[in-house]
Automatic annotation (TrEMBL):
This is Group 1 truncated hemoglobin. Keywords: Heme, Iron, Metal-binding, Transport. It comes from Microbacterium candidum. InterPro entries: Globin-like_sf (IPR009050), Globin/Proto (IPR012292), Hemoglobin_trunc (IPR001486). It comes from the Bacteria. The keyword Iron-sulfur does not apply. The keyword Magnesium does not apply. Pfam families: Bac_globin (PF01152).
Length: 125
């Protein structure tokens, strides 16, 4: 147990930035996920994701981008894609030295976003 916020446990802004780098390296190397980002300026995307994650983990609320429904609408993202991104995030967190319990907390914080992100094939459709 710790009184630290999840944001602090992740190493605040610098820690999150390095995890986000690892996450998008993995996404770029994943032949199913990479095609979603062909038109994307990755430097902006990484900044938006880092700000979003800071806010979502109890850090400063500097995210000024679209809400998750609007950001992902019409992209045909599937449940399997969502699970892959969570898996890549867990691997990037682990590589950054984050312990398993904290990784589980980050995943739990992201899971409720599934319904807003997934607009393609769903498992239970
Ligand atoms: C918990 C999971 C996810 C989170 C927290 C997340 C977060 C974000 C954020 C913060 C943005 C930027 C919105 C803006 O610029 O205003 C974004 C855009 C985007 N996301 Fe996600 N996302 C998630 C899952 C996914 C998945 C599973 C995919 C597809 C594989 C995906 C594909 C995209 C694409 C293509 C964009 C638009 C990039 C562009 O502007 O060109 N996201 N996401």
């Amino acid at each position: 147990m710790t009184d630290k916020t999840l944001y602090q446990q992740l190493g605040e802004g610098a820690g999150i930035a390095s995890v986000v780098d690892g996450l998008y390296l993995r996404i770029a190397g994943d032949p199913t996920l990479a095609p979603y980002f062909t038109e994307t300026r990755m430097i902006d995307q990484k900044r938006h994701m880092a700000l979003f994650l800071a806010a979502a983990t109890g850090g400063p609320n500097g995210y000024k981008g679209l809400d998750m429904g609007a950001a992902h609408a019409g992209r045909g993202i599937t449940d399997a894609d969502f699970d892959s991104v969570i898996g890549h995030a867990a691997a990037a967190l682990s590589e950054a030295g984050v312990d398993d319990e904290t990784i589980g907390e980050v995943a739990a914080a992201l899971m409720p976003l599934r319904a807003q992100v997934v607009t393609g094939e769903t498992v239970d459709a």
